[in-house]
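Lab meeting, item 3. Inverse folding demo.
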């Protein structure tokens, strides 16, 4: 356990009891204000801490971390320093924010490097070069397969043998708070009828998480499950917006295209694997046993509670899903090992999304497609309306947190409002 993970630590910065950002978290992000250019930050309670200001005052100099990385508009250069350096920065931050600190008077600088989170603009934390979306929840794959192929053929023959995935579009990944336009495309309204063109009528969310690649690999080389976490910097929340009607028409024979690539939303904070270490758990039992290159030693999942709230325009929101990251059948180490087993190289800042995370009960299904069972069971909303799929003006809010020994580690929100198409 690193110093920053000590559950006994308390900060001199006020941290509300229900905050996602106690001193044990210290995630990394990028922010700006009207008077400040984009730069790196961490979160503590209701505040963001400006890491560029702390660097300019020399607080990281003895760690061998160059000051310039904290003034970058993305985390990539900071992540590229390697886990030894980024871990040292996180530990130094825990020292500076510790209420037992005696080496300096925090009040002297607090007004310069602390900003209320509600008064800053959180930005896209990463320059994402490539993005892969997996399909790793057995419950989700079974539900979707049962809808379209029947219960007997719900899982495809390969699903229990490898982490299924596809390459998505990195350019349309946006940070929380960015509105999402309803996509347009071809759809087949009736079986056997010619396709029609227009706005999607079956816009959906997908509750996912994504891990951030923190180290380059060489083209032609593979990453083992034993080494995979050395290449993972941290995790973000991920909403893989989906147009189900467009996707259904286009996905045979090559899979998702316009039904997926119009937008994906991530949370602004990257929570490190170090911060999540106390919440490590076993994932589901795997049967049949995976091939040797996919086998893992020890627990490789995390107990991360997930929630989706659906908020109609001008109305009261309603939680519609409660799931957990630990439900994923294929873990991150297996996903990365499979992704690179053929020699595919990865680069710092790449995102690897989990696929929709559904659980065993109906209230844990991670998409409206499942929650309403293709629209057959609409969800009643507090304003008296119903939802089969998303309407213009709806806001989807995803949240994630871990809780143990009185410590809560959260991810903030991945929020997006649906706008009409152009």
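The presenter then showed the designed sequence:
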């Amino acid at each position: 356990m690193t110093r920053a993970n000590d559950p006994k630590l308390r900060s001199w910065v006020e941290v509300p009891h229900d905050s996602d950002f106690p001193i044990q978290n210290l995630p990394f992000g990028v922010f700006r204000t009207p008077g400040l250019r984009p730069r790196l930050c961490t979160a503590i309670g209701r505040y963001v801490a400006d890491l560029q200001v702390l660097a300019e005052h020399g607080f990281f100099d003895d760690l061998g971390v160059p000051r310039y990385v904290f003034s970058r508009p993305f985390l990539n250069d900071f992540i590229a320093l390697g886990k030894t350096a980024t871990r040292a920065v996180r530990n130094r931050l825990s020292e500076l924010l510790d209420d037992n600190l005696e080496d300096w008077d925090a009040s002297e600088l607090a007004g310069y490097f602390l900003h209320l989170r509600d008064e800053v603009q959180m930005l896209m934390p990463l320059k994402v070069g490539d993005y892969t979306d997996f399909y790793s929840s057995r419950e989700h794959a079974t539900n979707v397969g049962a809808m379209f192929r029947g219960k007997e053929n719900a899982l495809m023959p390969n699903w229990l043998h490898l982490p299924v995935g596809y390459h998505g579009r990195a350019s349309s990944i946006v940070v929380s708070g960015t509105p999402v336009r309803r996509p347009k495309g071809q759809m087949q309204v009736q079986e056997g009828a010619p396709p029609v063109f227009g706005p999607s009528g079956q816009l959906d969310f997908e509750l996912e998480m994504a891990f951030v690649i923190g180290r380059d690999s060489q083209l032609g080389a593979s990453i083992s499950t034993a080494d995979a976490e050395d290449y993972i910097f941290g995790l973000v929340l991920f909403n893989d917006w989906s147009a189900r009607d467009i996707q259904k028409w286009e996905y045979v024979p090559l899979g998702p295209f316009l039904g997926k690539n119009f937008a994906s939303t991530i949370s602004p904070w990257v929570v490190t694997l170090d911060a999540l270490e106390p919440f490590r758990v076993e994932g589901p039992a795997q049967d049949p046993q995976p091939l040797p290159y996919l086998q893992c030693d020890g627990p490789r999942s995390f107990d991360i509670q997930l929630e989706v709230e659906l908020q109609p325009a001008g109305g009261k929101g309603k939680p519609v899903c409660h799931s957990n990251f630990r439900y994923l059948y294929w873990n991150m180490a297996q996903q990365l090992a499979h992704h690179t087993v053929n020699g595919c190289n990865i680069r710092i800042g790449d995102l690897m999304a989990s696929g929709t995370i559904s659980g065993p009960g109906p209230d844990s299904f991670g998409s409206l497609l499942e929650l309403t069972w293709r629209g057959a069971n609409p969800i009643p909303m507090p304003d008296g309306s119903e939802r089969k799929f998303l309407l213009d003006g709806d806001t989807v809010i995803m949240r994630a947190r871990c809780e143990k020994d009185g410590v809560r580690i959260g991810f903030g929100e991945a929020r997006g409002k649906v706008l009409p198409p152009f």
